[in-house]
Design brief:
Elements (H helix, E strand, L loop, with lengths): L2 E6 L14 E2 L2 E2 H11 L5 E5 L3 H9 L19 H13 L7 E4 L11 H12 L3 E7 L10 E3 L5 E3 L17 E11 H4 L9 E5 L11 H14 L2
Parallel strand pairs: 1-4, 1-5, 6-10
Antiparallel strand pairs: 2-3, 5-9, 6-9, 7-8
Amino acid sequence: MRILGIIPARGGSKGVPRKNIKLLGKMPLIEYTILAAKESKLLTDTIVSTDDEEIAIAAEISGCKPPFIRPSELAQDTSTSIEVVQHAIEFFEKQNIFFDAICLLQPTSPFREEGFIDVAIKKFVASQADSLVSVLPVPHEYNPHWTFEETERGLLTIATGDKIIIPRRQELPKAYHRDGSVYIAKTSVIKKGTFYGASIAYIESNPDFYVNIDTMEDWKQAEALIIKLGL
């Protein structure tokens, strides 16, 4: 299976300005994900998709020269990951280069266990699912069967639509949240405007490596993880 790794990195980050090329420890943030992708033996190729010349230079120095500069209209606050990935697919298909699936690797989740990307790819292929997402368990107190949504009348209703709340923690079904580390989807599914499709496989990440950088508080957590993980 031909799988293209895509690392999206726009220049206009707000929570942590210029975070993709900001030094985290001894290297720019984006380099952690580039190195993880280069370690993979199952990715056919990996690219960085960016609208920013400075990020493009940093990516090239890290060993992943972007094949294009992403159009500015695909680098706005309202731009979606699916649009970014569809643009990359179209770029390659115009050159008669085709991929069966896309592996999206977000630089905002910089830490992955060694070999994790290939383990995820193997599980995706074996599952024959439309997509695979890396996840972490939701703590029981935030389980969707124990959370509420506001109704039009300003009252609360169980978020899952249950009529009666599940009384015991032991009876709660397992729930997971996306941790941002790895997304894989068939190209045919992505062309339809979704990264998930009808069937979604999953792989649990190691919680010791988890950080999703959006704010300066997240950045400080990442700096602490570097020390803890000995990176």
